[in-house]
Amino acid sequence: NNPSYGPFNATFWNSVVLYNPFTVRVHPDGQPHLISDPITFYLASSEGGSLAPAQILIVTKSIATEIATLAAGSILALVDLTVWIDQHLSAADVTAWALLLAIVGALAWPRLARFGERRVRAWLLALVYIGVVYATIPIFPQLWHGLRIHTGDSIRHTGSVIIGAIAIWSAWRLHKRVQGKQVGPYLLYAILLVAYIALLIRFGQFPAERLHLLEYGFMGVLLLRARTIDRSPRVQDFVICWGLTVLIGCGDETIQWVLPQRYFELKDVGLNAVSGALGLCLSRLVTGGQQQ
User: What local confidence, expressed as pLDDT, does residue 54 receive?
Assistant: First the structure.
């Protein structure tokens, strides 16, 4: 008997093996309490060999389409956010807040000037970032929903795409610093990369969780930069900045605990801590412990 491929061809179905393994659970209609245990299975290619050029082309096209959809959807979501801000914040409010901040800055600067302008700017950037993270906690579900409207299922790749771009940039910076003269840094980079990939896979079902890797990894780097803006970082600097990142992550979860329809999760506290540690390790590896 000749196989039937429906509206597609054999090449299309053979490309599905790239998404192995598959896991399914079933239950009788209307009886979800009788759901079965997960069953995992693998599909095999009818060709039994390596990927055909046509399959590679299909996969490449699919990845490019997903990234293009994500990029276009993100731009549209930013437009929506801009419109929303324009509708909810009047020019008078913005002007008033800007004036208030200017007055506070003018009053505080004489006391802060002794720390140096670069250090003050670095700490201000870190504090603003922390403020943005905390301020967006109540509205993050709405922001994520708005992004999903424009990007569809492509939204699940957000964290992966950004981390992939950072990985490429970090590899370039690392090679530029090491110039292939040492093997150790490349091995450490490979270990960090495997850790990031493992976490991306681990949280594949919850794409929003992947953003913690970016959010708190960057948090740790900003804190380290602020603390060591005028010198090379020492081991205790990394430990202190990691500890601060963990505390800020605990504050994040505490805010979610008191908000309606948000939840405190120890899992997220742990993920924030791991994300901060990975970000600091990557920063140390890329910069070689030099002043940032």
Answer: 59
Does this model's pTM top 0.85?
no
Beta bridge partners of 149: none
Report the C-alpha gap between 183 and 174 in whole angstroms.
11
Domain assignment of residue 227, given as a range: 69-74+112-287
Measured CA to CA, the distance from residue 225 to residue 229 in angstroms comes to 5
**Burial class, 256, CB count within 10 angstroms (exposed 0-12 / middle 13-18 / buried 19+):** middle
Q: Is the same domain home to 45 and 121?
A: no
Total domain count, the chain: 2
Average pLDDT of each block of 10 consecutive residues along the chain (292 residues)? 70 72 85 84 66 64 80 88 80 84 87 86 93 89 84 79 90 89 90 90 77 91 92 92 95 89 84 94 85 58
- How far is residue 163's CA from residue 148's CA, in Å, rounded to a whole number? 19
Single out the residue of 133, 116, 130 nearest to residue 228, CA to CA.
116
Local structure of residue 136 (DSSP, 8 states) = T
CA atoms within 13 A on the CB side of 169: 9
Among 251, 191, 241, 189, CA closest to 218: 241
Helix H or strand E segment including 164? helix 158-178
Task: Tell me which residue of 229, 216, 231 sits closest to 279, measured CA to CA.
Answer: 216
Instruction: For the chain, give the mean pLDDT.
Output: 84
Residue 91 falls within a domain, yes or no? no
CA 229, 235, 238, 240 dihedral sign is negative
For residue 232, how many other CB atoms are within 10 A of its CB?
Answer: 12
Q: Is residue 186 part of a domain?
A: yes
Strand pairing partners for 24?
39
The pLDDT of residue 194 is 92
